[in-house]
């Protein structure tokens, strides 16, 4: 698999890479894994940061990243991991938070114990009022999604897509649930959600091999879908 659409390797912008040195190490490790297409998705919290200032910081960090020799082997897609709350809709245009050149947005939900009406309302606003396709980040972290295929189906019918962190396949109980979601067709994208360094190559290779045993076409399908939807430039 050569794509990864969730990372925090831009330096000094969120809780990811603190400086360019760490960014360079992360890129080198991802390249060793065989990653060629990498999305840059720093956290954006609309209730904490003005959109204009966030975009300026993100652009500055991106320009710095592109000076690294380690960046030369990648195709990048600039985006954000957008925390979903009411404040987000103070802005008329949210296109700058989508993956570059697309209408797909990586969306972080609230870590509550249940899926709230506010979440449903805001996802509906993204899809209907803004024409954005939400890519729900690391659904493996939300028990209310992992335990409720009917809710996932409702969100799918709303237009949502689902991203899973590969690391969650390491753990027995989450792995069983994730394989069930794989069988039901609820896994659209993989990512590592890298903040400093990605997982070792051997571990990543073993996880992907295990996924392929359950669905031999899934890894290739996820790669194709990521390049088609996210890496369009």
Quick structural gist:
This protein has 233 residues and is an alpha/beta fold. It has eight helices and nine strands.
Describe the protein's architecture and organization.
- The chain is of the alpha/beta class and 233 residues long.
- It has a single domain (3-229), classed as TIM Barrel (Alpha-Beta Barrel).
- The protein is built from eight helices and nine strands.
- The chain has a six-stranded parallel beta sheet. It has a three-stranded parallel beta sheet with strand order 1-2-4, with helices on one face.
- The longest helix has 15 residues, at 51-65.
CATH topology: TIM Barrel
Distance between the termini: 19 Å
Number of strands: 9
Helix tally equals 8
Widest sheet: strand order? 3-5-6-7-8-9
Major β-sheet profile: 6 strands, parallel
- Which structural class should the secondary elements be placed in? alpha/beta
Q: What oligomerization state is this entry in?
A: single chain
Q: Proportion of β residues?
A: 5-15%
Shape assignment: globular
- Using only CA atoms, what is the Rg? 17 Å
What's the CATH H-level superfamily name? Answer: Metal-dependent hydrolases
Stretches where pLDDT is under 50 for at least 5 consecutive residues are: none
Q: What proportion of the residues is helical, as a percent range?
A: 40-55%
**Overall average residue pLDDT:** 92
- CATH architectural group: Alpha-Beta Barrel
Order of helices and strands: EHEEHEEEHEHHEHEHH
């Amino acid at each position: 698999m050569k794509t990864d659409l969730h990372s925090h390797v831009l330096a000094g912008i969120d809780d990811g890479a603190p400086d360019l040195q760490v960014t360079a190490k992360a890129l080198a490790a991802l390249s060793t894994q065989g990653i060629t297409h990498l999305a840059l998705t720093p956290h954006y919290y609309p209730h904490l940061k003005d959109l204009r200032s966030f975009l300026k910081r993100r652009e500055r960090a991106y320009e710095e990243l592109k000076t690294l020799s380690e960046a030369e082997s990648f195709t990048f897609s600039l985006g954000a991991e957008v925390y979903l709350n009411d404040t987000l809709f103070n802005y008329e245009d949210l296109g700058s938070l989508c993956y570059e050149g697309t209408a797909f947005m990586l969306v972080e939900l609230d870590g509550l114990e249940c899926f709230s009406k506010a979440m449903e309302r805001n996802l509906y606003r993204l899809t209907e009022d803004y024409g954005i396709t939400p890519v729900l980040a690391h659904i493996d972290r939300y028990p209310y999604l992992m335990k409720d295929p009917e809710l996932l189906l409702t969100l799918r019918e709303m237009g949502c897509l689902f991203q899973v962190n590969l690391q969650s396949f390491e753990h027995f109980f989450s792995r069983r649930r994730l394989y069930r979601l794989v069988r039901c067709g609820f896994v659209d994208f993989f990512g590592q959600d890298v903040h400093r360094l990605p997982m070792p190559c051997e571990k990543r290779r073993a996880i992907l091999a295990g996924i392929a045993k359950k669905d031999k076409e899934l890894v290739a399908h996820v790669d194709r879908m990521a390049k088609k939807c996210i890496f369009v430039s």
